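Curious: why this fold?
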Amino acid sequence: MLRAAALLRGVRSAGALLGWLCTAIIFRTLGKTRFGEFAVIFALLGIVGFIADLRLSRIVLADVLAADETEAAHIVGSYTGLRLVIGVVSYVVAMVCVGIGHATGSFSTDQVIVTSIGGLNLIILSVAYVLILLFEARLWLRDLAVS
């Protein structure tokens, strides 16, 4: 278990390093103004994603740990549907915010397009949190690190 936890820590650190490196490359490529325009969009998506997370996984995790295999599968299935709905709603909220900003002249067309593509992350990761929850509940830390 300690090796799997160390692997998980290493993978997360490598991911953070790659994220920082990609940000530096993108910043140098786009320049200050264009990078700032896109940083605002991704900050907005981060805030919407944070609010949409709701930390529901901790409640469901306790239920999955206490349940037998059949009941745990039912709980995880229901939670998957809930997370999908939350992801879609958060995507719509982000698009409405950017759409209003575009209508008032605050956001460019490029920023709306970037939000529509980057915002799909809200849906994908919302459902992926279910897999993460299941891996954590079963202590499949190596599988979690690989995923």
About this structure: The mean pLDDT is 84. Residues 83 and 126 are 6 Å apart (CA to CA). The radius of gyration is 18 Å.
